[in-house]
User: Fold these one by one.
Assistant:
Number 1:
Amino acid sequence: MTQEQGAWQVTYRGTIYPWHCDHVGHMNVMWYVGKFDEATWCFLMDLGLTPDRLRAEARGMAAVKQEISYSRELLAGDVVTVRTRLLEVRERVIRFRHEMLNAESGEVAATTDLTAVHMDTAARRAVALPEAVRRRGQALVDQAAEGGGDGIEL
């Protein structure tokens, strides 16, 4: 496997409802972002940044960059899966990619690359990720670089 193929994990499954669709009949961009956001929180929890931990330590994650590409329309009734792969982990920053797939056809409907910063929510400044989270993240990045780990369980 190439790095592009390795170390993916499913982080979201859901359905497109009629109220997700715009005036031309396909899912509106705001819902892509919303579903990617839900996948992000599942991914962060699997990395060790659980809701309880973030609240107890007065920490949070802030998206500082997001780039989205739309490839295929999604329609009411479509079932989607989002899978996620960690691209990079640094002291305070993680970069990751989500792919949203039409679960029936397997076609990629959209991708997004995100850069997020770990922050102290009281001081409102970036702080180091917990060491265990960085180690777990780096192991995922390394595994992808070595070409393994499709569907990895955290």
Number 2:
Amino acid sequence: MSKKISVLAIAFILAAAISFGATKTYQVTGPVLEVTAASITVQKGSEKWEIARDAGTKITGDLKVGSKVTIEYRMTATSVTVKEAAKAAPKKK
């Protein structure tokens, strides 16, 4: 019985890891304009990109203003609100 539970637990962990890894990643490269505990702002062309970060963000090297960085990030929905379609107005005769 214990073996079956262990195999099931391992299968669940692998399925979770695969689904987590399936999230598409993106990246932005450029010089750092600002660093805070909650975000990193990067200049990309004429645009400023502000990317959120938290305690789990892995940083390799000395992150500071002026450093050239490449940031990998994911876009994940935090909420979805579905709006009902507007009803068509009655046709005039």
